[in-house]
Design brief:
The complex is a heterodimer of chains A (285) and B (244). By secondary structure, chain A is α/β, with parallel strands linked by helices. Chain A folds into two domains: 183 residues, 3-Layer(aba) Sandwich (Rossmann fold), CATH 3.40.50; 66 residues, no CATH class. In chain A, α4 packs across α5 and α7 runs antiparallel to α8. The longest helix of chain A is centred in the C-terminal third of the chain and has 29 residues. In chain B, α3 packs across α9 and α6 packs antiparallel against α8. The chains are: A alpha/beta (285), B mainly alpha (244). At the A-B interface, β6 and α3 of A face α7 and α8 of B.
Chain lengths: 285, 244
């Protein structure tokens, strides 16, 4: 190795070290392998990723590529086999303080009304009642649930229930909000509206957002950056900067730039999706 | 409303048939006479001890089968190997007429409340075990995950998420346990007791005291209907939260 080259390597290592400390979220060399009944499945990695504080980052990828596994690692629900995961400079061990997660499935508690659903986490955290009331009222108002505070989830539509889950996360004032295909079960119009609400929430809270989605338009419209993952074992094959300004909303979908972004995303993803389908076909035949 | 009309109509029909002596008096007495006899019995307090003893046995059997059934359900749920072995047995359990074991219980507990409660519990407990397993199975995985995100301890998650989530199924188990306890207690009193409403009915029957027998039967029906509609009311309130 030439002196110049080794210097570059050393510099790169130093940059990596610095970025672990500065980045809001830092993943280095993360891999995840699942073992079941004597067989092992390499689900994810190696993955390197740094998220800046207050960034809106989306992950797209073919189904089964390990997107949700990535989220589980970041949320401290599942430790990786190798690599390091840091949140705010501290290694992730168990669910970190300041992290909120919104799942694809309806996670509202059917036995609690909307108000109590939203207040659940605050009560567990031992926040005083006056503060709970203030924050819950704000979150319910913010998500447009004011008239439904006394309603039970069963009385609400799927979109409204997902709003409850977002309000429930928002109320804890997380610094990192992760959403795992949160609008997957909703119709197209509702998804665009919910996307706008997510952007509004992002601007308001200045939290870092990690959105996992299979919808390219959603990723292109909402994000500062979009990471494209390969088929299993998932790794990032491209990271695209959208260049939107902070005050964007769903109307960007009619701009030519939006078309460019989705075109590039699809170009990368199409190859992976085809690979995915062919492996499925060989498996089923 | 229609249901009420049907019952009223049936009662009225029996009443008329009895009054016209199409049904002979020694076979069945008119419902109005049953009610009158029941009031008389209740006022005289002649059977108060029997009534109280039956209700107490039903209550004890229900409490025992609900708590034991719930605990057994938890244990079976947490041991998948045990569960795989037991599940077919649980599923076919009610094919076995539990009452055939009454001689065994008489040997074990003697004649009296002990044996009666044992049979009633044996009859009721499996419905509670099944309901518990059902309730635990139906807890959505995402709710447990939510508990972890809230950094709740295992016990907190069990009490504040899993228990309320399984509550409707558990309540169904309680409802069934009450019904089976009633059946178990009253039926056992016929064969292995010297007290209780079941015994009193059998005694009246053997001594050709038809009015008394029917009055006591009416009492049982009223009691079971009352308890059941109370439980159904609670059940509906629980369910109405969860369904439109």
């Amino acid at each position: 190795m030439t002196p110049a080259a080794s210097e570059t390597v050393a510099k790169a290592a130093a940059v990596t070290q610095a970025s672990v400390e500065q980045a809001h979220v830092a993943l280095r060399g993360i891999t995840c392998v699942f073992h079941s009944r004597g067989r092992s499945l390499h689900a994810l990695g190696p993955v390197d990723l740094s998220l800046a504080r207050g960034e809106f980052f989306s992950v797209v990828g073919p189904s089964g590529c390990g997107k949700s596994t990535l989220l589980d690692i970041l949320a401290g629900l599942n430790p990786p086999q190798t690599g390091t995961a840091h949140f705010e400079g501290k290694p992730i061990q168990g669910v970190p303080d300041g992290v909120g997660v919104v799942f694809q499935e309806d996670a509202s508690f059917p036995w609690l009304n909307v108000h109590d659903n939203v207040a659940f986490g605050l009560r567990r955290a031992g926040v005083e009642p006056a503060e709970i009331k203030r924050r819950v009222d704000y979150a319910i108002g913010f998500m447009g649930l004011k008239d439904f505070a006394a309603a039970y989830p069963a009385q609400l539509s799927g979109g409204m229930r997902q709003r409850v889950c977002i309000a429930r996360t928002l109320v804890l004032q997380p610094r990192l909000i992760m959403l795992d295909e949160p609008f997957g079960a909703l119709d197209q119009q509702t998804r665009l509206i919910m996307g706008d609400e997510l952007l509004r929430l992002w601007r308001e809270t200045s939290a870092t957002i990690l959105l996992i989605t299979h919808a390219l338009d959603e990723a292109a419209m909402l994000s500062d950056r979009v990471g494209v993952m390969s088929t299993r074992p998932g790794t990032f094959i491209d990271i695209i900067e959208t260049g939107w300004d902070r005050n964007r909303d769903s109307r960007v979908v009619s701009t030519p730039h939006f078309g460019d972004i989705t075109a590039r995303l699809w170009e990368k993803l199409r190859v992976e999706a085809l690979k995915m389908m062919s492996t499925n076909e060989t498996r089923s035949s | 409303m229609l249901r009420f009309a049907i019952v009223a109509l049936l009662v009225a029909a029996i009443e008329i048939l009895c009054r016209l002596h199409i049904i002979p008096v020694d076979v069945m007495i008119a419902p109005s006479q049953m009610a009158a006899e029941l009031v008389k019995i209740l006022v005289s307090g002649e059977f108060s001890a029997d009534i109280i003893s039956s209700i107490a046995n039903v209550l004890i059997s229900t409490v025992l089968s609900v708590t034991l059934g719930f605990v057994a359900g938890l244990i079976i749920y947490s041991a998948p190997i045990l569960r795989a072995a037991l599940e077919p047995l649980l599923a076919s359990y009610y094919a076995v007429p539990t009452f055939v074991f009454y001689p065994v219980f008489v040997v074990l507990f003697g004649v009296g409340s002990g044996a009666i409660i044992a049979i009633a519990v044996l009859l009721a407990i499996v419905s509670m075990i099944t309901a518990t397993l059902n309730g635990l199975d139906r807890i959505p995985r995402v709710l447990r995950k939510t508990g972890r995100i809230y950094r709740m301890s295992r016990i907190k998650t069990a009490l504040m998420i899993e228990l309320p989530s399984a509550a409707p199924s558990l309540f169904t188990g309680i409802k069934l346990s009450v019904a089976y306890s009633f059946i178990g207690v009253i039926a056992s009193e016929f064969i292995l007791s010297g007290s209780g409403v079941g015994y009193a009915i059998a005694y009246a029957y053997n001594n050709f005291e038809t009015p008394r027998m029917y009055a006591l039967m009416l009492l049982i029906i009223l009691l079971v209907t009352g308890v059941n509609s109370l439980l159904n009311g609670i059940d509906r309130r629980l369910q109405s939260q969860r369904h439109r």
